[in-house]
Design goal:
The complex is a heterodimer.
Chain A (H helix, E strand, L loop, with lengths): L8 E4 L4 E5 L8 H16 L3 E7 L2 E6 L6 H13 L5 H4 L3 E6 L9 H8 L3 H9 L3 E6 L6 E4 L14 E4 L3 E5 L2 E4 L4 E3 L2 E5 L20 E6 L2 H6 L12
Parallel strand pairs in A: 5-13
Antiparallel strand pairs in A: 1-2, 2-4, 3-4, 6-7, 6-13, 7-10, 8-11, 9-10, 9-12
Chain B lengths: L3 E9 L3 E5 L19 H10 L8 E5 L4 E4 L3 E9 L3 E2 L2 E2 L5 E4 L4 E3 L5 E9 L3 E2 L30 E5 L25 E5 L8 H9 L2 E7 L3 E5 L13 E2 L4 E3 L7 E3 L6 E2 L3 E5 L1 H8 L6 E2 L1 E3 L2 H13 L3
Parallel strand pairs in B: 13-22
Antiparallel strand pairs in B: 1-4, 1-12, 2-3, 3-10, 4-9, 5-8, 5-10, 6-7, 6-9, 11-12, 13-20, 14-15, 14-21, 15-18, 16-19, 17-18, 17-20
Chain lengths: 240, 312
């Protein structure tokens, strides 16, 4: 079984890519290694680098196969991995604060989570907002950050039937993870509130508010503050 | 950068026509997909036939139905699929540069050979880049003729470079003979890291029987139906997915991920089709049969470099 093979591994990922597998399990401590590898790849590959996709336990490295052969790319990665050190700065990066209006009108599953946990809605909000989370991956949609891990008491499975339209800014929980929807998309996560923050902005430098490896905390705000910050108070759309 | 001027107006939109440059790169770590032409081969030739550099935006016309009126004289080329295109009702010669005169109507009918045609104009279509690309990704609302990721609609105007050549470039590229998209040939696959997790019998069948292109096929991915692939892994921790990755969900029916795929995913993969195999697959109509053959990195790289070498 592959589990028995030693880590890290460099695996085939097509003509122009290698998958670097650093870990087998999800862990917040992985991220300091992954962000360090991202930085080292940027340096080592320079302008033959096409894309990097860090995620939980892996880094997908995409390069220009017209200018660098897959074999040469692999050699560079082997070399980097031998000298890889975790990014100490990432381990205690400043915590980004995301304001959230936790309310049933914009978080229809708040009461469902409370029921599952045998807690009050206020306790669910406290549970979600009192710890900091790490961004493990971006994906699903531009700027959609998968963050973990939530308090086991408010873990909840995805909805049986995903919504066709989840409003932008919706803050949600699925399994051990939490996220905020940058734009209107379909989605099957449990909605518990909404942030007025703009998570993805094509006109902003860096485009995405959150990046892999970031630390995030959700800060409860009331409706007035939500509105002041430009939040959209419209309730969920009729029907799903 | 030269000025942009109106080049063509849309009088009938058809089901799906999108402006595409080579793709959106460098932002996949933010969850932004690649986009770009799903048949890179046809797109590259359309541009090359009118003397455009690699990366110039061209129009990807899926299925047909699009009708355009030239607002000035333009040198154009259509490559990729034969969608029964006509100019003023007369058949248009494809895979070669031609001149479209002001006021003439260019119309695409329906698939004759292949599924997606590429229309290039000499000098190139112009649009405002979004995240450094005009590649149109409808799901993300990025790129395209309007920057908002919309497909073409009736009444839209397509801008072209003001320096656009009105005449067919002299001494332009020698066009190849158009591919027969009904005979795509075996699709080259680079086997992936999870190959050992699939049962030997199901792998034998996968590489020795024909797969059918399902009607669940779009710019995100193409589902193939056939013998059930059996994998010991059902899901994995989500990780980055490259172009052409062949992911296998628990139902054993593979999905080939194309240009608009999500950036990360959690199904085991058989491997990844080569870029040229993806191009061929993107021209297959639902119901068509394809075969999969394993290729080496060396072979795939040599083929890819030969293909790209044509375009400088």
């Amino acid at each position: 079984m592959s589990q028995a093979e030693s880590l890290p591994r460099i695996e085939s990922a097509g003509l122009d890519g290698w998958m670097v597998r650093l870990f087998d399990d999800i862990d917040e401590a992985n991220m300091a290694w992954l962000t360090a590898l991202v930085r080292d790849c940027e340096r080592a590959f320079g302008d033959v680098l096409v894309d990097l996709v860090p995620s939980y336990t892996t880094l997908l490295v995409i390069f220009d196969p017209l200018r660098l052969s897959p074999g040469e790319a692999r050699t560079r990665l082997v070399d980097l991995l031998q000298r890889l050190q975790p990014d100490e700065a990432a381990a205690d990066a400043p915590i980004m604060e995301l304001p959230v209006w936790y309310d049933a009108s914009v978080g229809p599953e708040l009461s469902h989570l409370a029921e599952l946990a045998g807690m009050s809605v206020e306790e669910v909000v406290a549970c979600h907002s009192e710890r900091s989370y790490r961004v493990f991956a971006l994906g699903f949609a531009p700027g959609f950050a998968f963050m973990g891990s939530v308090d086991p008491r408010i873990e909840a499975p995805r909805l049986d039937t995903p919504r066709r339209k989840v409003p932008a800014g919706s803050v949600a929980v699925a399994g051990k993870q939490t996220a905020a929807y940058p734009a209107i998309t379909p989605g099957g996560w449990n909605l518990i509130g909404r942030t007025p923050a703009v998570l993805f902005d094509r006109n902003r430098e860096g485009f995405s508010l959150l990046q892999v490896g970031d630390r995030v905390r959700f800060v409860p705000i009331d409706r007035a503050e939500f509105e002041r910050q430009g939040g959209d108070t419209r309730a969920m759309e009729e029907g799903r | 950068m030269t000025e942009a001027i109106d080049g063509l107006s849309v009088t009938r939109a058809g089901p799906l026509a999108l402006l595409q440059d080579a793709g959106r790169f460098g932002v996949r770590r933010l969850g932004v997909t690649q986009g770009g032409p799903v048949d890179l081969h046809g797109w590259a030739w359309a541009n090359h036939l009118v003397g455009n550099a690699w990366g110039t935006p061209a129009l990807e016309v899926t299925f047909g139905g699009l009708e355009l009126v030239a607002e000035r004289d333009l040198a154009i080329a259509v490559a990729g699929a034969d969608l029964g295109a006509t100019v003023e009702g007369k058949p248009l010669a494809i895979w070669q540069p031609v001149t479209l005169r002001e006021g003439q109507v260019l119309a695409f009918a329906s698939p004759v050979n292949g599924l997606r045609a590429y229309l290039a104009v000499a000098g190139g279509f112009r649009a405002v880049p979004v995240l450094n690309s005009v590649a149109c990704v409808m799901r993300e609302g990025l790129g395209g003729h309007d920057g908002e990721g919309h497909k073409l609609a009736e009444g839209n105007r397509l801008r072209v470079s003001a320096a656009a050549s009105r005449e067919v470039p002299v001494g332009a590229a020698q066009p190849p003979s158009p591919p027969d998209y009904q005979q795509p040939g075996p699709l080259g696959l680079l086997v992936g890291a999870q190959i050992a997790e699939f049962s030997g019998t199901s792998l034998f069948r996968a590489f020795n029987t024909a797969w059918r292109v399902d009607d669940r096929a779009d710019r995100m991915g193409v589902r193939l139906t056939g013998p059930r692939l059996q994998c010991r892994l059902s899901t994995m921790i989500s990780e980055g997915i490259g172009l052409g990755a062949v992911q296998v969900p628990p139902d054993g029916q593979p999905i080939v991920l194309l240009n608009d795929r999500q950036t990360i995913g959690g199904y085991p993969r058989l491997g990844a089709f080569t870029p040229l195999a993806c191009s061929r697959l993107a021209q297959c109509l639902p119901g068509q049969e394809v075969e999969i053959k394993a290729v080496t990195h060396e072979r795939a790289l040599a083929d890819h470099r030969r293909f790209r070498g044509v375009f400088g």
